[in-house]
Amino acid sequence: MAAATVVEAEKPAASEGATAGFSGVHEPAWDDSQLRRYTFSTKPIPRLSHTDPRAEMLINNEEPVVLTDTNLVYPALKWDVAYLQENIGNGDFSVYIAENHKFLYYDEKKMANVENFVPKSRRLEMKFSEFVERMQQVQQTGGEERVYLQQTLNDTVGKKIVVDFLGFNWNWINKQQAKRNWGQLTSNLLLIGMEGNVTPAHYDEQQNFFAQIKGHKRCILFPPDQFECLYPYPVHHPCDRQSQVNFDNPDYNRFPNFKNVVGYEAVVGPGDVLYIPMYWWHHIESLLSGGVTITVNFWYKGAPTPKRIEYPLRAHQKVAIMRNIEKMLGEALGDPRQVGPLLNTMITGRYEDPQEEDD
Ligand SMILES: O=C(O)CCC(=O)C(=O)O
Questions:
Q1: What pLDDT is attached to residue 2?
Q2: Rounded to an integer, what distance in angstroms lies between the CA atom of residue 302 and that of residue 353?
Q3: Computed from CA positions of residues 211, 131, 37, 33, in that sequence, does the dihedral angle turn out positive or negative?
Q4: What's the number of domains the chain is made of?
Q5: Residue 9: which pLDDT band, with cuts at 50, 70 and 90?
């Protein structure tokens, strides 16, 4: 991994999180046929008890780890679509509808920056029962179209959900936040996905404890030092922070460094909590033929920038610098469309081999 790797885990086995079948024999909760195939290789993310000192070291070092026994969302482990439909209340929910399995995020506020930008999914506000109907319709028609509910938990939820929420292991997570001087909890996003849904690779500027509640998700992470392999969209583009590479069919002419990408992966199931460090890329897929998935994440602001900066800078600090340069140029030029041409003029032919003079 990027800096010190304190744990080398075994290759994840499909038998992890096994469930007991009718025979009493433990059956694997998932198998390899439920994973999509990609061109790159991955190493496993360690699965550890939250009491294991190696888990603490990984989080301190901002490296991912799956924690198997935090009880973080224990009261929610009974949630399924029927329970939520009964108890979640009559608020509005953001539901994305995509033309295929990929839900590429886009920032609606940045859409005006790119002429002719056509999002590959659309967001609709609807009641929970409408979402359930929509999901059933899509399942019945069996086409490419899919739906994904992604809604910040708010005070419109019903009493039973509030009780479940208050029963989360706030003691443990508050300690995690305090120990690392992270900022405030900004939101809990509830995600309810159909089997096979994919959230393509992107990074967030927040720390994330990703708590799996129902079904299994495959999470492939890449450290911030793989920026050059993943080719994020420009900062002013609606798909800022998302990789431009199509993992299903990479275009190596446009994105040659994608050949060098190496991921870290884990399949998380009910009760698992994956720590996704700030600025780490993550690609997340609900397993094929795995049924509905339910997740709640916990997003925290990062720790404040230290007063004394230590060199060499870490990869994520360089990503933050690049983001700030793009933003400053956009403001200085008064037009985000001029940022790319100016950066090209500034760099092309000047930095490739600066020691050789042409006479
Ligand atoms: O679970 C997903 O599909 C995406 C979640 C995600 O990107 C996040 O929690 O940051």
A1: 45
A2: 37
A3: positive
A4: 2
A5: low
From 103, 148, 208, mutation site for ligand 1 pocket: most ligand atoms within 8 A of C-beta: 208
Backbone φ and ψ for 312, nearest 5 degrees, come out as -70, 150
Q: Determine, yes or no, domain membership for 7.
A: no
Whether residue 297 has its Cβ less than 6 Å from ligand 1? yes
SS3 state of residue 177:
helix
Q: Are residues 281 and 338 in the same domain?
A: no
294 C-beta closer than 6 A to ligand 1: no
Pocket test for ligand 1, best of 191, 192, 275 (most atoms within 8 A of CB): 191
pTM of the model: 0.94
Find out whether the beta carbon of 293 lies less than 6 Å from any atom of ligand 1.
Answer: no
Q: 358 to each of 120, 349, 350, 353, how far by Cα in Å? A: 47, 12, 12, 11
* Within-domain flag for 105: yes
Task: Write out the DSSP string of 122-163.
Answer: EEEEE-HHHHHHHHHHHHHH-SS-EEEEEEE--TTS-HHHHH
List the end-to-end C-alpha distance of the chain, in Å, as a whole number: 44
Distance 134 CA to ligand 1 centre (A): 21
The per-residue pLDDT for 1 is 46
Which residues form the domain of 118?
Answer: 32-301
